[in-house]
Q: What sequence folds into this?
């Protein structure tokens, strides 16, 4: 494909885009440029760039103060189709991190939202016979509803069609333009509508198909505005080498470094052929490229003043983000394009980008474009939000890919939540009711005297904290579940049911054992509350606490010693229902197809049978 790029500033004055500033980007692109005029000296351009990059690097290295909020984002989801389990996965993980940070006492701003502009969305709307706006309203609402059902505790939901967002995007665009980083050029290439990205021919598979979406890329020729990404090659290299934690997990850093090393190409940030988007300031015939637009949602979401939003107001409300959580497919946009755009606008870059793996079905990425999705609404309605949240976080090592199987889902959830946790609580409360009138005989500190069990719990809690902190979410779940396993072992070894029968000091010791287990349950409820918030609340309520007390607890409450003598526990009621599989044959039907569902347990009162 022959590409041709003519370079000019946006208002029509052509300028020289120095080859040196295009750095070592591929010959492929260099060959496409024809330079006409040069109103800027190379020196001033270079020093402006260096200034902006240095200040960026310095500010990036500044330590965050405890007063700074913890700003956490999910990607803004495309509204071409309703959410699927892959989209829910990122948001569940983000919610766990947000809840953990709140437990640590941080002020958290958890941002999520929808990415509503661009060709892909306009085509999806047309296919449904709706206007783009109507279509976006419906799908964006579906995301909000799913987040509610999944107990997602977001603080800000940004839609890229919000007027506030549009104002911020235009202001940001103008800053980048003023910094001399936007120029006009013709471009010809192959475009993947699903990625919303021009592709290099060498990236494509047979018949010019996109390797991710398996659909042919379309030849496009456009007069676009370009962002001078290549100018930021050196600064990006420096950022990555000086801040190795910027991209996580660490094995993804190499990937990003090698993209940069292979030479950064300027990219087109407007579309002449797309109406459904934010108009380019001073050129109403073009709309802003959907990625340039959407990334800014992370900043516009912070905006406080809806009447007169400004970039500065949004920035002072929490920027830079502490963590962008994304899937690995959109790492290049976040770890390369986005920091360069921010540098160009003189803004700080985010502190960390974490690219998780994919949920797969039969080894292929589950996704809206391939249509091989898993329905999260269906899973939540059959099994409840705690089961769904727990399974995906516990089963998929955060950062790696993971395949879904219903059999595994049921086994894990039943073994961990129903048996290890639910049954332990239930049988302990049953014994307490029968032998101690549901009342604690001693303080939990006294109950644990001379026992190794308390130390084990404290060590595991500390492990869980460290894992949450490192975003090793599966290991955090595992560490807390270990407390449950240790509790079950303790109960089985001590067999308080027989010691109660012996009376006297044996009975006193048995009463202490129950306090020990219930204290461990209290700690499990707190430590696992980021992952299974509803179930944790039900456990907490069984231990005699109120919802207000649950809502105000902090991580420091995981310290041993919370339960006190004389406290009265609730009547034992199962907190988590086992998932039963009934074959239709058993249920009266003729086939042997499995019908699998969990019995419902009301939000904050466990009443179903375990
Ligand atoms: N709109 C862009 C993001 C813009 S952010 C400023 C986009 N949207 S998306 O809806 O296609 O994808 C959103 C997120 O969902 C991405 O992080 C993507 O990796 C994630 N997932 C989509 N399918 C997935 C799986 N099958 N598994 C795990 N996550 C995947 O990209």
A:
């Amino acid at each position: 494909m022959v590409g041709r790029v003519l370079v000019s500033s946006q208002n029509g004055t052509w300028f020289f885009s120095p080859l040196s500033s295009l750095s070592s980007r591929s010959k492929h692109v260099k060959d496409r440029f024809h330079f006409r005029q040069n109103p800027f000296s190379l020196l001033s351009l270079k020093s402006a760039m260096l200034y902006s990059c240095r200040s960026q690097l310095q500010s990036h290295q500044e330590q965050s103060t405890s007063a700074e909020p913890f700003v956490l984002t999910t990607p803004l989801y495309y509204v071409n189709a309703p959410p699927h389990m892959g989209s829910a996965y990122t948001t569940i993980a983000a919610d766990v991190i947000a809840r953990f940070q709140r437990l640590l006492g941080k002020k958290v701003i958890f941002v999520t939202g929808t990415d509503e502009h661009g060709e892909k969305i306009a085509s999806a709307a047309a296919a449904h016979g709706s206007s783009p706006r109507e279509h976006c309203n419906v799908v964006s609402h579906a995301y909000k509803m799913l987040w509610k059902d999944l107990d997602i505790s977001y603080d800000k939901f940004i839609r890229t069609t919000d007027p506030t967002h549009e104002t911020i995007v235009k202001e940001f665009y103008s800053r980048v333009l003023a910094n001399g980083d936007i120029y006009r050029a013709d471009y010809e290439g192959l475009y993947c509508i699903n990625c919303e990205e021009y592709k290099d021919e060498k990236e494509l598979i047979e018949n010019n198909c996109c390797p991710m979406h398996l659909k042919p890329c379309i030849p496009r020729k456009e007069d676009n505005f370009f962002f001078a990404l290549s100018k930021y090659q050196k600064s990006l290299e420096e950022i990555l080498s000086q801040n190795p934690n910027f991209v996580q997990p660490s094995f993804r850093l190499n990937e990003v470094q090698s993209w940069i090393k292979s030479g950064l190409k300027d990219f087109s940030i407007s579309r002449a052929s797309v109406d459904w988007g934010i108009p380019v300031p001073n050129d109403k015939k073009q709309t802003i490229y959907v990625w340039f637009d959407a990334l800014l949602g992370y900043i516009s979401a912070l905006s406080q003043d809806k009447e007169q939003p400004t970039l500065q107001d949004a920035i002072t409300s929490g920027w830079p983000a502490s963590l962008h959580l994304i899937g690995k497919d959109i790492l290049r946009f976040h770890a390369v394009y986005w920091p360069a755009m921010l540098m160009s606008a003189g803004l700080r870059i985010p502190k960390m980008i974490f690219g998780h793996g994919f949920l797969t079905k039969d080894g292929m990425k589950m996704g809206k474009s391939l249509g091989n999705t898993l329905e999260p609404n269906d899973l939540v309605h059959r099994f409840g939000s705690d089961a769904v949240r727990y399974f995906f976080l516990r089963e998929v090592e955060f950062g790696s890919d993971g395949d879904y199987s219903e059999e595994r889902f049921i086994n894990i959830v039943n073994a961990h939540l129903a048996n290890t946790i639910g049954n332990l609580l239930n049988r302990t409360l049953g014994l307490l009711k029968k032998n101690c009138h549901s009342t604690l005989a001693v303080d939990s500190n006294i109950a644990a005297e001379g026992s190794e069990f308390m130390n084990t719990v404290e060590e595991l809690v500390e492990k869980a904290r460290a894992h949450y902190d490192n975003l090793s979410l599966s290991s955090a779940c595992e560490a807390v579940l270990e407390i449950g396993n240790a509790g079950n072992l303790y109960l089985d070894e001590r067999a308080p049911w027989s010691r109660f029968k012996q009376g006297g000091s044996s009975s006193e010791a048995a009463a202490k054992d129950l306090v020990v287990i219930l204290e461990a349950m209290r700690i499990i409820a707190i430590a696992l509350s980021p992952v299974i918030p509803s179930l944790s609340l039900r456990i907490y309520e069984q231990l005699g606490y109120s919802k207000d007390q649950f809502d105000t607890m902090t991580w420091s409450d995981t310290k041993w010693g919370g339960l006190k003598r004389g406290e009265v526990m609730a009547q034992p009621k199962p907190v988590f229902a086992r998932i039963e599989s009934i074959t239709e044959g058993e249920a009266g039907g003729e086939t042997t197809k499995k019908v699998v569902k969990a019995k419902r347990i009301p939000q904050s009162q466990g009443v179903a049978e375990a």
Observations:
- The pocket of 5'-O-[(L-methionyl)-sulphamoyl]adenosine is lined by residues 75-78, 86-87, 89-90, 115, 294-295, 297, 326-327, 329-330, 358-359, 365-367 (CB under 6 Å).
- DSSP finds 22 helices and 21 strands in the chain.
